[in-house]
Design a protein that fits this description.
Elements (H helix, E strand, L loop, with lengths): L5 E7 L2 E7 L2 H13 L3 E5 L5 E2 L4 H6 L1
Antiparallel strand pairs: 1-2, 1-3, 3-4
Length: about 60
């Protein structure tokens, strides 16, 4: 099985949630929902580049 393209990590207080998605659109949508609910969210792409919510649009431009 191949590695999924996008890993989402969300943290809030003492909780951490991790999720992997192959679709950039789904990864960004999930990350934005968590961010709107007060989670600190980052997306890491398959190359290891980590993006904060303000940089999510960069994934769409790629």
């Amino acid at each position: 099985m191949s590695r999924l393209a996008y890993q989402i990590v969300a943290t809030r207080e003492n909780e951490t949630v991790k999720c992997e998605r192959s679709s950039v659109l789904i990864a960004i949508a999930k990350a934005r929902v968590w961010s709107s609910e007060g989670w600190q969210v980052v997306i890491t792409d398959s190359e290891g580049k980590t993006l904060e919510p303000a940089e999510f649009d960069k994934l769409l431009a790629a």
